[in-house]
Amino acid sequence: MSEEIVRDLREQVRLLTLENKQLIDRAEDIFLLGLVAEKVAAENDPDRLIVRIFEQISLLKGVALCLFGHAHEHELTITHSYSTMPGFSELEYPVSTTLSYQFPANNHLCTAVESETAKGLLGLLFPALTLTVNSVLCLGRRRVDGQVVILILADDRRPEELALLEPLVTRVVDIVMARLDTLVLQDSLRAANRDLEEKVNERTKELLRLNQALTAEINERRKTEEALHSREYLYRTLVDSLPMGVSVISRDHRINMVNRMYADWFGRSAESFGDKICHEQFEQRDSPCAHCPGVVSMETGGIAHAETEGVRQDGSRFAVRIRTVPLHNGELTPSGFIEVVEDITELKRAAEESDSLNKKMLQVQKLESLGVLAGGIAHDFNNILMAILGHAELTKLMLPATTPVRDNLLQIEQAAQKAAALSRQMLAYSGRGKFVIETVDVAELVRDMVHMLEVSISKKALLRYNFASDLPPVEVDATQIRQVMMNLVINASEAIGDRSGIIAITTGAMMVDRSYLAKTWFDEGLREGLYVFIEVADTGCGMDQETMKRVFDPFFTTKFTGRGLGMAAVLGIVRGHQGSMKIYSELGKGSSFKVLLPASPEYAQQMRKTAPVEMLTPGNGTILLVDDEETLRALGQEMLELLGYQVVTAEDGRHALEKFKEYEDEIVAVLLDLTMPHMDGEEAFRELRRIRSDVKVVMCSGYNEQEVSQRFIGKGLAGFVQKPYTLKALGTILHEVVLSAKK
Hints:
Blueprint: H1 3-42, H2 46-61, E1 65-72, E2 75-83, E3 95-98, E4 108-109, H3 112-125, E5 135-142, E6 148-155, H4 159-163, H5 166-241, E7 245-250, E8 255-258, H6 260-266, H7 278-282, H8 293-300, E9 304-311, E10 317-327, E11 336-343, H9 345-398, H10 406-430, E12 437-440, H11 442-448, H12 450-456, E13 461-466, E14 474-477, H13 478-496, E15 501-512, H14 514-517, E16 529-538, H15 545-550, H16 567-576, E17 580-586, E18 590-598, H17 601-610, E19 622-626, H18 630-642, E20 646-650, H19 653-662, E21 667-673, H20 681-691, E22 697-701, H21 705-711, E23 719-722, H22 727-742
Parallel strand pairs: 13-15, 19-20, 19-21, 21-22, 22-23
Antiparallel strand pairs: 1-2, 1-6, 2-3, 4-5, 5-6, 7-8, 7-11, 9-10, 10-11, 12-14, 15-16, 16-18, 17-18
């Protein structure tokens, strides 16, 4: 074999051997990396981890000495070491030393100078170490915490041989550093977790304590709120139950609160007053009230009083008494005031009625005393006059007709006759005159006096008559009533005087209740019910209030003196017949005198006797009677009450609608006049049907039934009765209508 072939074979063997060695080295590196990775993954102790890795590097790569530590600028601190060389002894770590240069935080193969420094360092650290250091490999890493970690490998091999280990060692260092960083992070996380758990536990305890305190506070607050709510409910109930109005008003006159009574006065909810201006809501004023007691209370700090009028939602007024107190709310300056308002409308009305009653009682007592005195004087005066007249007449008979004293005796007789007339007036005033009672028709009585009245008055006064027909009879002394009429008409004529004027004489009947009687003169002992009236009205000079108060005083007159008893006698006669009088007068506009005489009790009895028994069956409902004639309303009410119904009356269509709305649930039928002012029967009928479609309406009119019925065909009219109607006719139609309504 040629030498050249041998050289080629040797070269090939050498290359294969080198390649094989590289493969073995690579296999060893892979094995080492796998082993390192396995050890790193299984080790959780950083110290043991570093030592175990040094062992693997030393054993597998034959590194004589491995050192591990950390560097800070020129200071090096060794924390771990490992060596397989004889004479190696571990130090007590950590060991720190100062270097002349700064280790970089990356892989670094030491220079000759650095190697000499490192050899000197190793000699100081390990004096007994028998190692010839030819090369030093230094690897640096910056950890997650910013610390620079140093790995130093020292060996007796040449630097270029040791440099071959750098890639492997670099990878090992990366794996170890990652694991160390992971362990550090885990320790940090565990420490942080422990700290967090401790803080959470502490916070939980604190929150638990706070929660317990909060729960206690909530319970206490709930109890306080319940107590406040209970007190507020008690306060509100108390305030709302007061029979007086209570309001809380701010300093700028805004309403903060009103109670239920205050709200009811105005027909609104209490909430609707909130934040409104008080004088605008309560008195409908644009500016604060000049008499405002609330302002006085805030200025003086005390209680203030006032009486004024409130204005309801519908515009009606009512009298109130106000008391106010300042509201401080813990401040020195009042923030507003509390207003307590009492409705004194009824108190004022009662006081006025009481005052009027007292005045009437005083007047009654005065007139009663005067009447007793007048009656006594008249009685004795009559006896004296009887003696004078008797002796005068006897003297005339005894003396001859030609005697000169006969004229004197005639003058004595005439004067005595006048005195007798005055005595009779005094007896009439006292109510003790001798009455000849008979049942009469007042209209006929006055009609028979027409000629006498016309010749008794001024030529410039014109008499007009308005006599109602079918008046109930009265039980009176006709002569006395004629005297009353003469006095009233003559008084009216004198009130007219020299001017032209009218005297109107009206007769009629009316139902009189207690409230009406209270407005008349001397209503003591008078009964409610049906009265016949004679009214004498004039267009004369009229009277003022002071004159009206004295119009019935004996011998009082606004004319010339010496007029006698006059109006006092009229009142005495009327009182003697259990009647009364009502006066209306205005200065310069005339006067009206209405004489009220009770209808004869036999009238009602006679009506009962003439009515069929079946028509007088007691009713159980209310009839609304509508007629513009006062007399017809009175007679109609009397008839309906005889038939057993309760009665509500109205004077025209508008009034009828108001009464129907007020008594709608009680009214079973409506008796409606066809012809009336303001709103006639036809229009009122339509409005009543709008309010209640099933209302039963009986129309009454002077027209015949056929004519009226044609106007209401198909409109639901319940019936018709023609004027003048009888009790039987009225009872028959209402009986049918009420029965049909019940079905």
